[in-house]
Amino acid sequence: MAHPDLAAEPTIRVSDLSLSYPAHAGGREFAAVEGVSFDVPRGDVVALLGESGSGKSTLARFLAGRAADAGEKAARIKLTGGAASVFDVPMRRLSGRTRTRLTAYVGHLAQDAGATLTPELNVGDILFEPIAERSKNFDREELGERIAEMMDIVALPLAKLQEYPYELSKGQRQRVAVMRSLMLDPALLIADEPTLGVDANNRPRIVELLRWYRARTNATMLLISHDIGMLEALVRDVLVMQEGRLVGHGEINEIFRHADHGYVQRLAQALRATAYDEIAEE
Ligand SMILES: Nc1ncnc2c1ncn2[C@@H]1O[C@H](COP(=O)(O)OP(=O)(O)OP(=O)(O)O)[C@@H](O)[C@H]1O
């Protein structure tokens, strides 16, 4: 059985990778990612950009080891070509045990995670849950201090710990979801639009939380985000996808300065105008 090697270099290795959704409802198998290759070196923060439907979430979910997580069969992601490894664990045909081992180190913030917080739990329990599931013997006090620090960074009053998801605004729920994705101290964080649905005043709070986390842990991060504040504060390299393919890869300023691909050029222009909401919806 492959054991995750946290010192693996690079942390993520993707080679000519193709991913599909199975055929369903009389339709054909759908190729969401086609022939993509890139590495994410250990400790780097890389952004995955691209218009809606370009395959970003599919790739993120697959690399986070959550390809088979979806309830319905039709939403399970299948590797149809090439290879990928995370912490030197090959992602082809992951056994249940290997997957559990791997996902213990890989935080995944799913798309619109704030909307799927457990409705029966208050915020405090939502945050404690990942740790309580792993071990009964955790230091509640130490963890409480960490939670208080995170709440402060994202500007949520401690009284919110007693509230339930339905009592929070959309942006507050999203902030809780981002905090939750960090609770197990992941050595790799894969986050799908961490600031989506958060108002402009509070987006920098999430950026700050991720910066704080990185300074504390030096974790590797793959972020799907068109948030210019986040890109500027955290990201060195970007990957740009279009229709399942990688159409740009490199240092953020370089790639936008010398963009030779039509979509990358348009994206660069839009980002300069900081119209990120529109890009995400394009
Ligand atoms: N369960 C599924 N079954 C079939 N096709 C799917 C499924 N989920 C996503 N797709 C398709 O796969 C393609 C890639 O979707 P994906 O969500 O990865 O794109 P994305 O770049 O993350 O887009 P967005 O920014 O809108 O989330 C899209 O064409 C989408 O319609």
UniProtKB/TrEMBL annotation:
Residue runs in coiled coils: none
GO BP annotations, alphabetical order: transmembrane transport
GO molecular function: ATP binding; ATP hydrolysis activity
Keyword Nucleotidyltransferase appears in the UniProt entry: no
Superkingdom field: Bacteria
Keywords recorded for this protein, A-Z: ATP-binding, Nucleotide-binding, Transport
InterPro entries linked to this entry: AAA+_ATPase (IPR003593), ABC_transp_ATP-bind (IPR050319), ABC_transporter-like_ATP-bd (IPR003439), P-loop_NTPase (IPR027417)
Alphabetized Pfam families for the sequence: ABC_tran
Gene3D superfamilies: P-loop containing nucleotide triphosphate hydrolases
Domain ABC transporter stretches: 12-268
Classification via PROSITE patterns: ABC_TRANSPORTER_2
PANTHER family membership: D,D-DIPEPTIDE TRANSPORT ATP-BINDING PROTEIN DDPF-RELATED (PTHR43776:SF7), TRANSPORT ATP-BINDING PROTEIN (PTHR43776)
Entry similarity comment: Belongs to the ABC transporter superfamily.
Protein name, UniProt field: ABC transporter family protein
